[in-house]
Specification:
Blueprint: H1 3-23, H2 38-47, H3 54-75, H4 80-96, H5 102-122, H6 128-136
Helix pairs in contact: 1-2, 1-5, 1-6, 2-4, 3-4, 4-5
């Protein structure tokens, strides 16, 4: 296995574990599970040196943040963690589809860590533990 393949495998596992950590809580809409499709797609795009343009990625990231804010505004402040979870899921998805430099990978790791922290606050079930362990290992 090459270093690039190992790095991509570790990134895919960490990102999928972070997404699963927040999705398995049962509080998010079932459509949010579609964000998991971005993990293999993002790995494929990175290996073929393709991806979203910077402008498109920035616009989608803005939409992700506005969606999280809008969700929190419509559901009330008691759902701020859930709104943040939606926004972070979408931001991770956008970053997965637009990775060109090592700095982008670092941003993806930081976003996935925030997603794991959000999942820790949202989840109270045992399902979170395996996802957390997969992320940390």
């Amino acid at each position: 296995m090459t270093l690039f393949a190992g790095h991509e495998l570790a990134t895919a596992i960490a990102t999928a574990a972070a997404l699963l950590a927040v999705l398995t809580g049962g509080q998010m809409h079932p459509l949010a599970w579609a964000t998991l499709l971005a993990v293999p797609l993002g790995t494929f795009l990175k290996s073929t040196r393709r991806g979203l343009s910077t402008t498109t990625g920035g616009a989608l990231a803005l939409v992700a943040v506005l969606f999280g804010i809008g969700f929190t505004a419509t559901q009330g402040l008691s759902s701020i963690l859930l709104g943040a979870g939606y926004a972070l899921c979408l931001l991770v998805t956008v970053r997965l589809l637009n990775r060109e430099t090592p700095a982008h990978d670092l941003q993806l790791y930081a976003l996935s860590l925030l997603l794991v922290l959000d999942a820790a606050a949202l989840n109270l079930s045992w399902v979170y533990a395996p996802c957390f362990l997969a992320y940390t290992v």
